[in-house]
Write a structure and sequence with these properties.
The protein has 183 residues and is mostly beta strands. It has one domain: Immunoglobulin-like (Sandwich). Helices cover 5% and strands 55% of the residues. The chain has 1 helix and 12 strands, in the order αββββββββββββ. A 10-stranded antiparallel β-sheet has the order 5-8-3-2-1-11-10-4-7-6, with no helix packed on it. It is elongated. The chain starts with a helix and ends with a strand.
Length: 183
């Protein structure tokens, strides 16, 4: 039993946490924020053919528009690295204090997380439940799979402008995390 516990502890690597600059093109102009993303594989390295589990924390933008603006929804699209075949996805919680609905669904080789709520965008972080992704490793041995930052589309309501959509992109280079396929 001790050997099993020790093996499980050694297999679970520490999560990768990275802060990226997010640029959002909105009807009120381009707005930027700093957002921290966390990537946590259940184990690393993985083997070709293995069903692997990943936990990803993707925040919603913490913007402060010049007008009092209400968040209504966001769609966060996270592409799976080539070499993984999606088998399942779910949020760890479907409702939070800020979000009336949190959904995660497959969309081709991506995962789409949809958040719904109604709160003032005031720059305060609004935690999004972690997303659990189960995927089959289809990459050959010896490959490193890069998890790239997501694309984010948002919908908000502002005085005089009404309900408007915006698009956000990560402006920094580099992956959220990596998965190594053992030789």
């Amino acid at each position: 039993m001790l050997a099993c516990l020790l093996g499980a502890l050694l297999a679970a690597p520490p999560p990768t946490t990275r802060t990226f600059t997010l640029a959002c093109d909105t009807p009120l102009g381009r707005m930027k924020s700093q957002e921290t993303y966390t990537f946590a594989p259940a184990e690393d390295p993985v083997r070709a053919g293995q069903l692997a589990r990943f936990r990803v924390e993707v925040p919603a933008p913490t913007l402060v528009p010049p007008l009092r603006t209400h968040f209504l929804a966001a769609m966060i699209t996270l592409a799976l690295p080539s070499g993984l075949a999606l088998e399942g996805v779910r949020p760890e919680a479907s409702v939070t204090a800020d979000y009336s609905s949190v959904e995660a669904r497959p969309a081709g080789d991506s995962v789409v997380v949809t958040l719904r709520g109604d709160f003032v965008l005031d720059g305060r972080p609004r935690p999004v439940p972690p997303i659990v992704i189960d995927a089959r490793v289809t990459a050959p041995a010896g490959v490193t799979l890069d998890w790239m930052p997501p694309d984010i589309e948002g919908v908000a309501r502002a005085p005089l402008l009404g309900t408007q959509a915006s698009r956000c992109r990560i402006v920094d280079q580099g992956p959220l995390g990596e998965t190594h396929v053992s030789p």
